[in-house]
UniProtKB/TrEMBL annotation:
It comes from Neorhizobium phenanthreniclasticum. Residues 46-191 form the N-acetyltransferase domain. InterPro entries: Acyl_CoA_acyltransferase (IPR016181), GNAT_dom (IPR000182). PROSITE patterns: GNAT. Pfam families: Acetyltransf_3. SUPFAM superfamilies: Acyl-CoA N-acyltransferases (Nat). Gene3D superfamilies: 3.40.630.30. This is GNAT family N-acetyltransferase.
Length: 224
């Protein structure tokens, strides 16, 4: 698959032809679906408001921390999510169609893809929904994008997310101290050692190889 395919997926305006990935557990029970955030989905009633609320609820999990607003979220969807050829965002839906959260891929290249924006916004439905959503997406990454490695980055103080990534089979490969920069209406963290003040926590890079993932999740590879 070439990166231009990502733009084609996101340019879709017909819900019936939307890129979607089924979410299954190890018994092959379907739990929901990952739906590509395309032009049609971006205009769905309540979506921008949901993404804004979820972002605010998880504010301390990001390198840039600010009060999200619907207009800012809509601009991010239009100018970043839909416009970038190396990025794609999926909305996590239950089998009943409820929006549960989202999970994305960024920095896609021939060598790797990076999981990002993993967020559960609603606690209804399957308790391990984000675990199985992650398995489904990683299976798709390895089966469709055919990269050898999937990576992610996470703040070291985000222990809940790290537990999830550990369970998925990701391994820490790099740890970098963060520096805090206070700006008007925003706190920003950077790995640049000559900026800001010591944050007191680190930025972790974790990864899983296609070989390791398929060994851990042969059932997901078959479904992906």
């Amino acid at each position: 698959m070439v990166l231009s395919d990502m733009l084609l997926f996101k340019d879709n305006a017909d819900p019936s032809t939307r890129l979607a990935i089924a979410i299954h557990d190890e018994t092959d029970r379907q739990l929901g679906e990952l739906q590509c955030l395309d032009k049609a989905l971006a205009s769905e009633t309540g979506l921008v408001e949901d993404l804004t609320d979820w972002r605010n609820a998880a504010r301390t999990s990001f390198l840039t921390q600010f009060e999200a607003r619907p207009d800012r979220t809509a601009t991010w969807l239009r100018n970043v999510v839909l416009a970038a050829p190396d990025r794609i965002l999926f909305i996590v839906r239950s089998t009943g169609g409820e929006r549960i959260g989202h999970i994305g891929i960024s920095n896609i290249s021939d060598e790797k893809a990076e999981i990002d924006n993993v967020m559960r916004g609603r606690r209804s439905g399957e308790r391990r929904m984000m675990f199985y959503s992650s398995v489904a997406l990683i299976a798709w990454i390895f089966g469709t994008l055919r990269v050898p490695v999937t990576q992610l980055c996470v703040l070291s103080l985000n222990t809940g997310a790290i537990r999830l990534y550990d369970r998925l089979g990701f391994e820490e490969v790099e740890r970098t101290p963060l520096r805090r920069i206070d700006e008007p209406d925003m706190i920003r963290y950077t790995t640049q050692a000559d900026h800001g003040s010591a944050a007191g926590f680190d930025y972790l890079r974790m990864e899983i190889s296609a070989e390791r993932f398929r060994r851990l999740y042969p059932w997901a590879h078959a479904a992906g």
